[in-house]
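User: Design a sequence. Structure:
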């Protein structure tokens, strides 16, 4: 699903990863991280995709750099980060960007917003 974000500006954290073949606890931990992120002040939404080639891109949206820092330092998230480095990822890159503008369109039949 496409994240419903507020009017810019806000921040995007782009996490691009290449998975290893280790599956143990990955899906459960990923679900837990999403639950925790949704509880964090300043979290705005997330979009994620992974291809058959094990390349994945997750973009999370945040109200401020302070919110991003707090998420990075969250205790359970820190444990997951360590496991990611040691077990789940062959490579990854995290990028932080300021979203200054956005535009788009929705198929009204799929939109969570009421028709005008």
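Assistant: Done.
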């Amino acid at each position: 699903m496409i994240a419903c974000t507020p009017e810019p500006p806000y921040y995007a954290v782009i996490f691009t990863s290449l998975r290893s073949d280790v599956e143990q606890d990955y899906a459960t931990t990923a679900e837990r991280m999403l639950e925790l992120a949704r509880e964090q002040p300043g979290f705005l939404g997330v979009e994620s995709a992974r291809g058959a080639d094990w390349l994945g891109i997750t973009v999370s949206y945040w109200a401020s750099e302070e919110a991003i820092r707090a998420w990075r330092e969250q205790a359970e998230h820190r444990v997951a980060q360590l496991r990611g480095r040691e077990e789940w990822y062959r490579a990854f890159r995290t990028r932080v960007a300021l979203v200054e503008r956005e535009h788009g369109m929705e198929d009204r039949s799929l939109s969570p917003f009421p028709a005008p």
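The CA atoms of residues 73 and 79 lie 10 Å apart. The chain has a mean pLDDT of 93.
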